[in-house]
Fold:
Amino acid sequence: MVVILGWKSSPIGRSSLLKSICNLSKKLIAESSIKLSDVNLIIHAGVYRRNFRTEPAFASHVQGELGLKCKALSQESEHCFSFDVSDGSCSPYVALNSAKHMLKIKSGGYALITIGDERPNAQSYWPYQPISCVMLVALEGDGARLISTTFDSKAFETTAVISTVFDGTKSANVIGQYSPVEQEITTQNEMFIGETNWLSGRHMHEFLTMYSQGLTKLHQINDNSGKSVTATWM
Amino acid sequence: MNQGLLHSKILSFASHIPDNFVPIDEFAAVGDLPGKLDLHRLTGIDGHRRSNAGEGSLELAIKAAEKSMARAAIKPEQIDLVINCAVSNLSGKLGLHISPSMATIIAKELGIDEAICFDISNACSGMMTSLMIADSMIKSGEISTALIVSGENITSLIDEAKSNNLWLNSKAIASMTVGDGSAAYLIGKSETPNQVIFSEPFTFAQYNKLCIGEASKKRAGPLMRTKASQLQQGVLDNLSEFLTRSMQHMGLDWTEINHVYSHPTSPKAVEKGAEIAVATMGPIMQLHNISHDIANTASTSHCMLLEKSLQAGKLKSGDSTLLISFGSGLAMLSMYFHLPEGIEKWL
Structure:
């Protein structure tokens, strides 16, 4: 079980994803009861990165931009570990589950989970208005408690896979076309289900807003690919 | 479930090493590089393996995964978790896979229907990061068996680098040191403790701009730009403290480790690291610095070396093995494990 001690979200707007995430992270930590140096772990969850960057992990850029424990190793020094996870718009729950395990390994600290996407390049078709969402997470404390998650790949279709293609007319690698899986989504009582064409940050922004108002403790994300995740919160 | 009573072990590992060997003279002859740079002398690399035409990360990953499942006699329905950790995730036509996770596609191809599937991205340290999470999930009782897999289809980086004027773009030269390949590990429950132990994982983000992989702005596929000497120096500057601290954290005696594998950015780089390791920790029982004919295969590199050692008859059931991982970012972590029982019969 992990607990969200605090969270913040904001549309990226004209900012870069990195600036948006780092600004939100600084505000979140400033308003919390912990210091930045208490963060031992950064996990970024998202799909689209500027110019389709594949390495290093985006989370390492967040760590560097925050100036978090960027120092040489000694026998006593404290350090952070940063990496990325992804699984379409189900990515936030992959990050939360990964944090649960990594916080046991890097015990005694807090995790910063950052969620967001940005337009890879101007040549790619981009119908989204991404929202960045950052969450301060621990194994215990006061806040939203993630009780369980269930991932389901049964409806996954390979025709819904998204890849880049090289567009010769634009002379650029761009997001290729795909066929979203048509899903029949049944709304259960009090379960919040976002739209399948939302990106990860929007899903968590909308759910956490509803949760904060006491309107729901059940969340389902249905990805364009047919994959889904259902989460129970307390 | 009581985490204290649950243990894990490596059930099997497997790599697909492509047959097609490309000697260094064919892509980076002395006259091809700025300042008559002798890449072989500088790195110790003789060449790399190149995947078949049309073969991408997915196809490579499937080959390693199927081999690892056969070696461990594990059926698809026994696998609860699939993590893909490739850096490249490129199709044979150089399309970058974006969404959902490549792990989902790999699982579907393998007939793994019920597993949790996701991707982890942590450059060349993605494999160790993924194994660390899978290990924790097994020890917490959440899952029983995990497949950690990667297919690296990255030799197109060489073509991209060569399409540039390398006199003006020296940061592209490190792209010449990569090779294709794939790797898979199966990790599962164990009745014996301490079969798999991880070091503390670190990210030294002060080095996070020294190796960047992203889409080429001129041609299909990716590019990589690296300040190789600065990145290597970042590793070497922290290596002595890392090894000392890791051995203490893992409760290991360095002199009793049978096999050591370091991420092979190049054989020469491993030699430099080994000098520091020996000076800090003492003699290494067996350092497998054998990447000269496969080059740097990113997240698959340790497993590719293990496969080579296996083929050379160097590995025995139960042998203790240490994998030391470095990845751009800069990530550093290690995994210690005992080689699976019956490994001598795998070939």
About this structure: Chain A has two domains: 2-148, 151-233. Residues 124 and 174 of chain A are 5 Å apart (CA to CA). The radius of gyration of chain A is 18 Å.
